[in-house]
Design goal:
globular, alpha+beta, 6 strands
Length: about 250
């Protein structure tokens, strides 16, 4: 984005650096869990999103962030678990795991290392599970703690890339996140891969979204950016979330 007349170009540089700092924890997670982008396994019988769900109409899914689980985890008493083996259940799990499995919950002191490690081990599968054993070292990198990272998926949207109910799913999410202490948010897209195992959806990998770019405001936003909110669903297959505040 070009600086407008009268604005100091250095401010844009500072803003970009702030955006990078906001995403520090996420970047470190990906570095420490190299290979976590392993996709959920799909059988030769996997089908296109439009028909994978059978009776489910993927273009009409109504998903509210923070909802979908039938109970809470025994490890922290907060994280929702017990999702339905449907494509809607997969979207709900993928969405809620954004914040539930963010290590800033541990580094900010919201939950203990032991609680988060057990939760992470129980909720993840595949290569991404290997990060669990690195959590003590990760926490030690922040002796003074960190801020909690807050997520707003309802400011963006989601897309079901693929889904086989009760087996595997790949969900793309465009969301905003930022540190709770600053209240400044930036938009990010991610693909979340899930597998159905032991009666629930488990996170099995994370990937970047290709061919989909929306320019962030250089200084971030403090509330939903209507421009981004509308641009998200102008891309084929994307759907807005239901607003949890309503």
């Amino acid at each position: 984005m070009k600086a407008e007349g009268g604005k100091n170009p250095q401010l844009l540089v500072i803003s970009v650096l702030l955006a990078a700092i906001v995403g520090l924890l996420a970047v470190l997670v990906l570095m420490l869990s190299a290979g976590s982008s392993q996709q959920a396994p799909e059988s030769s019988g996997s089908v296109a999103p439009s028909s994978a769900a059978g009776a489910e109409d993927l273009s009409a899914l109504k998903v509210t962030p923070g909802q979908g689980g039938s109970r809470v985890s025994e490890f922290d008493g907060v994280t929702q678990v017990g999702y339905q083996p449907t494509c809607k259940g997969a979207v709900e799990a993928a969405t809620n795991y954004l914040s539930d499995l963010d290590p800033s919950r541990m580094t900010s002191g919201r939950v203990s290392l032991e609680q988060f490690q057990k939760l992470y081990e129980e909720r993840t599968r595949g290569k991404i599970l290997e990060f669990a054993e690195k959590l003590p070292r990760f926490k030690a990198m922040f002796p003074n703690g960190t801020a909690l990272v807050i997520y707003h998926p309802e400011w963006g949207g989601f897309k079901v890339n693929s889904c086989i109910p009760g087996k595997s799913a790949s969900i793309a999410i465009y969301f905003a996140k930022g540190e709770d202490a600053k209240g400044i948010f930036y938009y990010f897209p991610l693909i979340r891969h899930l597998v159905w195992e032991n009666g629930d959806w488990r996170l099995s990998g994370v990937d970047s979204v290709s061919g989909f770019e929306i320019t962030n405001e250089p200084n971030g936003v403090k509330e939903k950016d209507e421009r981004v909110y509308q641009e998200v669903v102008q891309n084929d297959g994307w759907t807005h979330y239901q607003d949890p505040a309503k």
